[in-house]
Amino acid sequence: MERCPKRAGWRGEMQSISGRKREREAACQAAVKAKDFTAAAKAAADVADCAEILASRTTGVVAEAYAKEVESWRSFARKLEALKSGVAGHFAHNTPGGGLGTNRPTGDGDEWLVADKPDITFDDIAGMEEAKRIIDEMVLYPMKSPEKARALGLNPGGGVLLFGPPGTGKTMLGKAIADALDAPFYYASGADLRSKWYGESEQRLSRLMNAAKSQPVAVVFLDEVESLLPRRTEGSHAADNRVVTQFLSDIGGFKDSRNLLLVLGATNKPWDIDEAVFRTGRFDEKVYIAPPDFPARRKILELNLGNVSLEEDVDLDSLARNMEGASGSDVSAVVSAAKRSALARAIREDAVPVVTAEDFSEARRRIPLSITENILAPYMRFMEERF
Ligand SMILES: Nc1ncnc2c1ncn2[C@@H]1O[C@H](COP(=O)(O)OP(=O)(O)O)[C@@H](O)[C@H]1O
Ligand SMILES: [Mg+2]
Q1: Domain coordinates of the chain in residue numbers?
Q2: What pTM, to 2 d.p., does this model score?
Q3: In this structure, which topology does domain 294-370 adopt according to CATH?
Q4: Are 43 and 31 in contact (CB under 8 A)?
Q5: Looking at domain 122-289, what is its CATH homologous superfamily?
Q6: pLDDT tens for each residue of 291-334
Q7: Around ion ligand 2, which residues have CB less than 5 A away?
Q8: Ligand 1 pocket: which of 329, 335, 339 to mutate (most atoms <8 Å of CB)?
Q9: d(CA 62, CA 59)
Q10: Residue 383 and residue 211: Cα distance in Å, rounded?
Q11: Does 147 have pLDDT greater than 50?
């Protein structure tokens, strides 16, 4: 250390900045708890400033991580500013750091409010051009420019159901929409809601919808909506039936209200959703999310490989072409498996990790492709019957 005073000085300074950052984070949390949003906004801005200094003095992934923190703390500070002036109504009382679905409970249905937007964007999603276009036209433009939409007699908000086979990027698309919209975003997964709150899920969902409706603008994303709003039959549980009935009444009339509410649903099993949900136009728009085609598979390979070194024998074109029948998540899984075998070899041989064609072949042998004719048929049938 003595031979490197400059380095020691740098380290000391970094430590004191991180110390101050931690201190301001704690101050922000305390102020939010005390509902002193002026102090909280100031503290959040200070945290962002500290992170910015740290970002400027580091490189690579560390700098990137700090830069991300700068963004999320700045955006949090802006939200707190809005709260201060009463613009946004009540907002999530969560300091940045959580992700989709990881926010702490705050009560009043706000336990599903995602304060920190997930950092998935449309650029991370391969293919789905049609779906993206519909989302732009139906959702993003009207939500971003509600006045212009209303001038054209278009009602922003409404309901959109994303459906398609598992692993095709529906949840991802929901996250990207959250990221693209500067609106409070509520996320609830049907499976979670049911397993955690069985027997209580109707009150939970109702509180969620009411919390969303109390905002001037809000997006509700109901993932795995079929397990939340299952078909009501004579044999089905009374509790399930109550959830559906309650949801229909909560969601009813939201189109006519002054506040702007967008309800997105995602499902692998649209045929399991209660008919009334469709009949009453709660999901006006239904968007089929197809498995990735060749260009999309190629793009998913690239997205998942990033800057990883590839041996010259790796031919991404033919790899993508030969993965007909892969879902997006199958393609990601193949890349992960190939990377893992490259890592094992690099460790064994004490060499720089490089992914080879053989790594991919082995991964392909191990990972079955999930989209078969049998999987697709019911979606085709559903589209014919319901569109
Ligand atoms: N179109 C896509 N572009 C990029 N990655 C994708 C795509 N579709 C799926 N994936 C990958 O598969 C994973 C699972 O996707 P997910 O959104 O959970 O699917 P779904 O909700 O439709 O079952 C994603 O996290 C991503 O890694
Ligand atoms: Mg999903």
Answers
A1: 5-96, 122-289, 294-370
A2: 0.70
A3: Helicase, Ruva Protein; domain 3 (1.10.8)
A4: yes
A5: P-loop containing nucleotide triphosphate hydrolases (3.40.50.300)
A6: 999 999 999 999 999 999 999 999 999 999 999 999 999 999 99
A7: 171
A8: 329
A9: 6
A10: 33
A11: yes
